[in-house]
What does this fold into?
Amino acid sequence: MKNYSVFDILGPAMIGPSSSHTAGAARLGKTAREIAGGSFYKVTFYLHGSFAKTYKGHGTDKALVAGVLGMGPSDERIKDSLNIAKEKGIDAQFIESDLGYEHPNTVKIVFHYKDKDDYYIIGSSIGGGSILITNINGSKVNFSGDYPTILIKYKDQKGSISRISSILSYEDINIANMKVTREGKIATMVMEIDGPIKSGIVDIISSLDEVIYVTGINSIGR
It folds into this structure.
């Protein structure tokens, strides 16, 4: 019979002693990776509030690293994630930080690349394995990762929302929620959709002249 440690399965689809500090942390890391992309050589985690105080004892460090390596909350490799990252040549650094008026379980995840600028995501683990992404590389957003999500940064022009929405409508994709924020002449759109993101949709949207950046994230399991 297997001997289970504190980082083994204690509940359905979860590795670790806390849904907020391990399951939620793993989802945060994995969602951040989906947004930022791979090929990073280093990740810096700025830990805020409760995350900063208890991250080692609750396994938050292992869960966050597991997430950025592409592991989900139920992956049994979470307990070995720090060693796995080293084997892959990925440096993981943890810094206790004050991120301001944020949820107590908040982290700023900064991805470092050799061939492009750093990229960061800020997100919170809000309980029960649920998460909230609030900032992507300086753009304020608000989405949970519970639904397939399309993120678009584009030059704010008349008709942009209509053109993007028409692409999804043509592909018979329903928009469940949509939020648009603007900073000067640049807008950020977050669309949560019903059903998985179909192959090719991201490429079609990226072909629009005004689109600067687009990525699709299929829901990250709890």
Q: What stands out?
A: DSSP finds six helices and twelve strands in the chain.
